[in-house]
Design goal:
Two copies of one chain form a homodimer. The first copy, chain A, is α/β, with parallel strands linked by helices. Chain A contains 19 helices and 19 strands. In chain A, helix 7 runs parallel beside helix 8. Chains A and B meet through helix 3, helix 10, helix 11, helix 12 and helix 13 of A and helix 3, helix 10, helix 11, helix 12 and helix 13 of B.
Amino acid sequence: MTDMAEVQGGRRAGRRGGGGAARRAERTAPKIEAARFIERNIPNFEILTAEAIEIIEYNADTILEEVGVAFVDNPAALDRWREAGAEVKGERVHIPRGLARKLCATAPAKFTQHARNPERDVEIGGKSLVLAPVYGPPFVRDAEGGRRYATMEDFRKFVKLGYMSKWLHHSGGTVCEPTDIAVNKRHLDMLEAHMTLSDKPFMGSVTEPIRAQDSVEMCKILFGEKATQAPHMTSLINVNSPLTFDSTMMGALEIYAANMQACIISPFIVGGAMAPVSVAGTLTQVLAEAMAGIAYSQLVRPGAPVIFGAFVTSIDMNSGAPTFGTPEASKILWGAGQLARRMSLPFRSGGGLCGSKLPDAQAAYETANTLNAALLGGVNFMLHSCGWLEGGLVSSFEKFVLDADQLGILHSVASGIDVSENGQAMDAIREVGPGGHYLGCAHTQANFKDAFWRSDVLDYRPFETWSDAGAPDSQALASARVKRMLDEYVAPPIDQGIADGLRDYIERRKASEPDAFG
Amino acid sequence: MTDMAEVQGGRRAGRRGGGGAARRAERTAPKIEAARFIERNIPNFEILTAEAIEIIEYNADTILEEVGVAFVDNPAALDRWREAGAEVKGERVHIPRGLARKLCATAPAKFTQHARNPERDVEIGGKSLVLAPVYGPPFVRDAEGGRRYATMEDFRKFVKLGYMSKWLHHSGGTVCEPTDIAVNKRHLDMLEAHMTLSDKPFMGSVTEPIRAQDSVEMCKILFGEKATQAPHMTSLINVNSPLTFDSTMMGALEIYAANMQACIISPFIVGGAMAPVSVAGTLTQVLAEAMAGIAYSQLVRPGAPVIFGAFVTSIDMNSGAPTFGTPEASKILWGAGQLARRMSLPFRSGGGLCGSKLPDAQAAYETANTLNAALLGGVNFMLHSCGWLEGGLVSSFEKFVLDADQLGILHSVASGIDVSENGQAMDAIREVGPGGHYLGCAHTQANFKDAFWRSDVLDYRPFETWSDAGAPDSQALASARVKRMLDEYVAPPIDQGIADGLRDYIERRKASEPDAFG
């Protein structure tokens, strides 16, 4: 029985007002294992030559200067740019060669995002890799219920699964869109879920500046006044590629930057539609957009924490469908990582991305291709690392736990190779000799528990045992795991005053405006 | 209508003796697309530091000198070693520090394996990657018939699928074990299938020295006397890890080396059982074993073409099952690749490896993890690149075509990033500008056909279309593709005299000894 479980038991008893509930909680409270964020002890894979980097960086500056970027419906942004030395024509900002990169230099190379459980704090940048779940789907899917619109109840389930997933460091943001709650109010319920059902770090709302402000206010309730002195949220600011920064996203960015909250500034590109069909051309545009957005964040507040983002998919030119796990996406990810590191900025890309409609082999090939590329490409913050299905239209319960399990592999690969004396194992090789067997030797006995990564959901049974158990496929195994995790879930303890404060804020804000849908 | 199809039509007519058959063949003969072997235009991923390499290389030499390697039931081998300067005690060969590496220096850094269609010749070594199918399973599986013992008819189907798979460069060897043919005769039928049903390069038999000799003799019939002047087979010589070289495998190696045929010398290791549980310890043993085996090939015939192999899986310490697509396997693959390149030798590792019993998400995660590791790890020859299921116990028809399709991704990733003016796409970015759309621009129109890799089997349809089509999962899509490919298959043309010569040889050899099973 851990300290945490004891606190949980007491807390639940207090809230439910019954000693029987407390005892039940004590009995069932599982030990929550949570891995620390990944610190890579392996090199990055660098696909761009020095010459290629030079060309792309030069071209990106050419775009910023000659083509310019549009800051739409945002006179204050245009003023900031003019003051910084850009030439503004209408809403088009032309940034002289070198200026954007210079402005980006005040952004930190690395920052800590704080969680309400300090053991869950994450460092973003440098050699780190922080894993966050799927973001944005309006639908959910599971084997039992099929594909359907997501609800707030689904949202809470995904937050619970995220909290229970040991390789996941971050609770994420819109793990699915709770379509049963009004568009102008659902961010409040979503934030409450992340704040109370998990103790991992989370993301704020970006769909309107006022919702970003709500996110900041709720953080003040949760964390106190220190909330705005350091990053307690990392939020997703998409660029409207090509080269356009709309006032909604920029309005949210302005609020977060002013409050020292972190933003991912992320070109969102379906290749061939929002960027050229070529890898180098796309990388050039990604760099120009990321530099412009990050430079703008530093105009709002020098030193505001930001992440250089790149979300790029390829497209099936037959059907127009975005495609995932493709070679072009891997190359762009690797190249963008190099470009971000050249600016000493944290880098976001990758994820458990796939186009498949089911958590089947297609989904897994596409996902694994992307996860592997992201690990070796030096990604520091990986959104969508589990649960993404059908091109991001669907949050899949089964895929969430299958992907989350695969994230353990990233941890283990990143740890590198131990060449200590124990790692060298020369005693074992001497002890066993030609034709011998290692299972019983002293070195194996001393090391076997941690020697090999082991899946918690995939099937390692012999054919006959597996067959007798009904020959379950991965989806069936994952279904059972989802049910078990949700059954075993116990909320992390929270100060009741804080929980009540959040609820009060939400109720007040909900009462202040009528429901809006769409 | 291609020239090849015309020849095929004529040939089939000749064999079947009917103009109607010829016309049918003409109508149905599909254009066989076959990609050239991969030439990497990307860097290798190098996980071992210079210090780690130094430690492992030093330790490997320590093993060879102090522990030694066993050459069992092979007095001639012991004589060769003694003559070369090793100390032989019983069957144990102690190789003085530095000697093995020095002996390996006569092996070529790169060689060409010739196919009967010269367009299918493959270069093995340097920056190349040659892809060969699954090898060895006694069972086959498909959606319709489930899991069952493999037959010669299954074998032929896999050879046909391999011939039709455009990203596969090599016809392989034992694509499944034809268990309905006597053990001492099945190699003859297998070789005939590779030689007549495909025109891609193939592997020889290694299960007895006399079967290696049969393979050489059949190559002489197929290729004429030039057969033994250059590599026309690449065959798989497994080391009995730890540190043991049995007389069956060494006997086959001796025949192939003497006849200038290529061998993969490959430690076959289930980590924790046949090698230490640590990555560095396993790499050390792999290096010692590969050096000893390759050095021995050069004692038989200096200059004989060989490949440094490493087949290493991890183990599930709960069940004892070998596991695939694991982080330990990736690390060992990357490290072994570095060690092989330090010796300027071609490197074999990787494959579409998985432990799953079905071609489901588990199979695809594990497979993609391995394929990605192998591509970036500098593998030159990849056996098992498609069709492997259930830890190598099963050749799966559906997984064969799913994996073979994924191999297209390796081709495209390996091509690197084009930074020519067309690749830079600055005209497109200027033409489209902020807020525009690239689908219609001149650069997209000129480049879209080759811009993005596209799967030939995965599903890119919108949800509704896919749903109306019965919501097929990857296995169902693959099943349909297998049927279509086998229906469309037309054998490549072969000189009838050669085909008859092979048949005569096989019949004579089969008549010369009674059937043996097991």
